[in-house]
Amino acid sequence: MRIYALAVYAFLYLPIGIIALFSFSAGRSASQMQGFSTGWYAKALGNPFVVDALKTSASVALTSALLSCLFGTMAALALTGLKGRVRTIFDAMIYIAVMIPGIVIGIATLIALVTVFDAVNPWVQAATGWRLSLGFGSLVGAHVLFTMSLVIILVRARIEGMDRALIEASSDLGAGPVATFRQVTLPLLAPAVFAGFLLSFTFSFDDFIIAFFVAGPETTLPIYIFSSIRRGVTPEINAIGTMVIAVSLILLIVAEFTLRRGKPAA
Amino acid sequence: MALSNRQARWLLLGPAGLWYAMLLVLPLAVVLVYSFGERGAAGGYQPAFTLAQYANLATRWTAFKNTLMLAPLGTVAALLIAYPLAYFLAVRVNPRWRTLLLVLVIVPFWTSILIRSYAWIFLLGGRGIPALLADLGLGDWRLINTPFAVLVGIVYGYMPLMFFPIYVSLEKLDRKLLEAASDLGSPPWRSFVQVTLPLSLPGVATGSMLVFILLMGEYLIPQMLGGGKVFFVGNALVDLFLQSRNWAFGSAMSVTLVAVMLVVVTLYMRFLKRIGAAREDVGLM
Amino acid sequence: MKKTDFMRELRRYHKGSVSRRHFLGVTGLGAATAVMAGSLPMRAFAQGIGDRVSMATWPNYDDPDNLAAFQDKTGAAVQVNVFGSNEEMFAKLQAGGAGWDVVVATNYTISTYVGAKMIEPLDLSKLPNYDAAAFEARFAGPGTVDGKLYAIPKLWGTTGMAFDSTRAAQPLDSWKGFFDITRTEFSGRTIIHDYQLTAIGNALKYFGYSFNSVDPKELAEAEKLLIEVKPHLFAITSDYQPAMRNGDAWLTMCWTGDGKQLNRDMPEIHYALGKEGGEIWSDFYCIPTSAPNREGAYALLNFLLDPQVNAREALFHGYPVPDSRVEALMSDEMRNDPILHPAADLLSALEFGAAVTLTDPNRAEIMARFKAA
């Protein structure tokens, strides 16, 4: 059993090791070790396109995650206890949004938006001087469709598992609906909303296929990497990958350390 | 300002409803309409009403076949690898190490799937594992650009999605049940089959469905590890939109892919209900 | 704010007589840009040529040192986006604003780009390094449409095949040989371009048809051949250097410069043209009408057209440049290189790609079917 687990971990870390190893190559090839150098790290950090792509990805992911949590939680609350046609329609929408492949979302959003923009742009341009186009807005729009549905599912599951007695108790004690919501419901929902936020952020940050279609002139990190791979990868890409892992690991260790210190010694 | 319950409800549902209307219903409707159209002279779309695009689907049968074979196969392979690991971490391992080992399962996935797949191109290419096998005298292996390479990429890319639901369901397992079984003289394999396995089925069901759904629309892994030789529906779709610029045919193929998925997933859920593995959250999905 | 006022402010801003903040404040764009930041081509508003220029080009086409020199000189970094086929480049541009300032497109696509108003006529006052007389007419011709110059050639080349000569019993010299050996000794070792023009064109040459044929009967034969060899291929990709270099592949359809680069590093890899014919082509710099940073595009083009810089480019990419000023700087060895400058009788059999192949629905569909087979 233990050996099996070890083998699985080896399988998981073999490619990561390769990435990290070649990131220190002095040569231009990302699949051959030629000397040792940390030059590619400096190069990646000094490359405005990498920094830009990182910023774009982060802001798209952050916006998507925030909107998803806000709208998703609102919808989940409204749907609780709701019956009838509206409920059926929303259930169907959530089901379809989660199940439909990302590639279809990307394609459908692309052709719908291009069609709509072509139709309304003459008026929009006459009125404002600007034209609607693909970009940040369409990226967030397409990502939120999926991530908001995730949040609704998570929060609703939490609401359904929630102890109704708490809310009743709060209102018996004379708290108004707003106070009850703020002091009882929201704290109870927080873990689900937080999980939804993390999931949404991760999904949006890592998404390639939807962005591939709807990003317009924006370059997210996955799109940048995809283009670089075609160009013949240099160890710069390996350096970026290694840094992302290293930063995540450090954050995790710091978090773990602070949590431990926060706890009284056992 | 006093809102009636009804008004408040609509206000809360408003943004989500708008989102679904504008970015789900509208795009899908456009795709459906386009699927009955024709390719424009220089590419793109031209209005028409024809079933020609659907009739042409037969020419992409291989892509559908590859997807419908490798998606379930990849799901099962990921399950077979993830389950024992999840079992080990949830039941066997010393709790002191559990958090660390769990985190170690996720960490590789913080770097882009693109970079990880690129590493596999090297590992499966002529200078990677095949060279090692040849040195060991194990013969001449060609791995890259084969269905096997795509399968490796799939398992590697999707294993954690399978792992976590299973781990969660195993972790909830009451260890006292196992102890009771063992006290009653049941051999370990029997308590596994009769106690552990049934209790972990909901996790297996969730993980399998998650992985399967994502695999049906997969593009990147076959693109990178299949070398244009192991083609999925996703690859055919990207080709239609970004190379042959045939939006009408691409739309028809998208509609078909969604229809196939709806059928397969619905059947799967029925099957789950019958064996009683459906859990609330699976039902919700 | 009236449109004329807006334009006046815009001009003042461009001339640099008002600050960006003033401009955004006066025009009320501040709030709008704050909301829409990212979805609008903000870079166009940067002073001078901005800090970045984005270029759509091909693998192994641009010397990173030259681009770094451009950045040192102007402060603008060049982003390189690489494509596998003209069709893909066209589709991305057609689907609306890809954000590129410079596009490197092949001769047969220029007239279609112009017709679709996707590229704009070049303003030669911003390209002092361009000298029309220095360019070879045969290669520069397609850049002029209706008397207006839309595109300037970067380089020209041929589409042949590169093979590992230690693996082949005898040297390859024909498309017949290419497809035949793929089905026999080289099974599993051949790469075909992910590009309809050359993949289908060279299959047509197998039967002796025109490289540009759109005749349904001839295309059907080419498709049959492609689908027949598909199980014997190593890959369908336009980025074939890595697989050739690490020995996974032994034979590939190949462009001049890649052939030169491979042969330079690994002398056992030879480059050959098909004696039945095939493609000769030239690639052009153009500026898309949707370019967010037009000034940057001109600055980059002018920089690259400097004969000294262009000569360094040529040494990197290994293609001949149809600019006599650049050829004059090349060594005799380069000028007489049989890969760069094939013998006249081989050259005369080659054809330039025809515009119709870009938009022909049949060719697009056959390529897609071949890949999905």
TrEMBL record, chain A:
It comes from the Bacteria. One of its GO terms (cellular component) is plasma membrane. The keyword Transport applies. It is found in: Cell membrane. One of its GO terms (biological process) is transmembrane transport. Residues 54-255 form the ABC transmembrane type-1 domain. InterPro entries: Bact_Polyamine_Transport, MetI-like, MetI-like_sf. It is a multi-pass membrane protein. The keyword rRNA-binding does not apply. The chain crosses the membrane at residues 7-26, 58-80, 92-114, 134-155, 192-217, 237-259. It holds the Pfam family BPD_transp_1. Keywords: Cell membrane, Membrane, Transmembrane, Transmembrane helix, Transport. Belongs to the binding-protein-dependent transport system permease family. CysTW subfamily. This is ABC transporter permease. It comes from Paenirhodobacter hankyongi.
Automatic annotation (TrEMBL), chain B:
It holds the Pfam family BPD_transp_1. It is found in: Cell membrane. PROSITE patterns: ABC_TM1. CDD domains: TM_PBP2 (cd06261). GO terms for cellular component: plasma membrane. It comes from the Bacteria. Residues 64-268 form the ABC transmembrane type-1 domain. It is a multi-pass membrane protein. Its main location: membrane. Keywords: Cell membrane, Membrane, Transmembrane, Transmembrane helix, Transport. GO terms for biological process: transmembrane transport. The keyword Transport applies. The chain crosses the membrane at residues 12-36, 69-89, 101-123, 143-170, 191-215, 247-269. Belongs to the binding-protein-dependent transport system permease family. CysTW subfamily. PANTHER family: INNER MEMBRANE ABC TRANSPORTER PERMEASE PROTEIN YDCU-RELATED, INNER MEMBRANE ABC TRANSPORTER PERMEASE PROTEIN YDCU-RELATED-RELATED. This is ABC transporter permease. The lineage of its organism: Bacteria, Pseudomonadati, Pseudomonadota, Alphaproteobacteria, Rhodobacterales.
From TrEMBL, chain C:
Pfam families: SBP_bac_8 (PF13416). Its main location: periplasm. It is found in: Periplasm. GO terms for biological process: polyamine transport. GO terms for molecular function: polyamine binding. Gene3D superfamilies: Periplasmic binding protein-like II. The keyword Disulfide bond does not apply. PROSITE patterns: TAT. Keywords: Periplasm, Signal, Transport. It comes from the Bacteria. InterPro entries: SBP, Sperm_putr-bd, TAT_signal. GO terms for cellular component: periplasmic space. This is Spermidine/putrescine ABC transporter substrate-binding protein.
